[in-house]
Design a protein that fits this description.
Heme Oxygenase, Chain A, mainly alpha
Amino acid sequence: MTLAAESAITHYGPDDFLDAEEFERRLRKVGAERYHNLHPFHKLLHSGGCSHAQVQAWVLNRFYYQSRIPLKDAALLSRAEDLDLRREWRQRIEDHDGHAGNAGGIERWFVLAEAVGLKRDYVASTDGILPATKFAVEAYVRFVRDKSLLEAVASSLTELFAPKIHEERIAGLLEHYDFANDRTIAYFTNRLNEAPKDVKFGLAYVIREARNREQQEQVIAALRFKTDVLWAQLDALYHAYVSPGHIPPGAFVPDGHTGETHHRVGRSSGEVS
């Protein structure tokens, strides 16, 4: 390490430790400044400004993220020696993969994909996913696998901000898009019930287990990293399907793609009207 790098490292003392209230405030500040509800693509989507092609591209690419959540959670579980942590965290895998009596988040996402006119087999294949989406999502899985367990848990804390974006999304989709109904947007309504429990556990865990200021800063940095992962996915969508509209080779190309006209999707048939 160079002298310049060493001088850039902040050394904290015992008096620098953040109390629980201030620590949580700084975590929430990350969301207020960096969460992807602030991204232009989401503002376009929630206001009804997305074309049918752009909605399809969002649903398809977001599936890649949804499909990898159980994999990153399994990676975390494989490293957790604490029984209580494993008991709590494995529920997240069931929430997404499903179990008896619960179709699961991935199945609900397939329902949404079919409603916007995407074939289930095509979505499941992950063919057509933007390269930047893959890079961002795989970076998240690697982060959870390779970083400390504390940082891995902390990276999930974007759930602190998720209920607000789900509420905005539910209202916006129902108001502006004919494909939206209780069945097709069930993924988001279910997360309104699942996320608060996940948030309560994850937040309590990092507040308890970050035992010095350096670890607290690692937690904050892990949360910033996760907001970057989410933001990067929307940057890729915006660049490919909104402006300037450069779809990379091999990525999804919607039929009659213009990136401009807002086509509505039939509520009953799921076909473009």
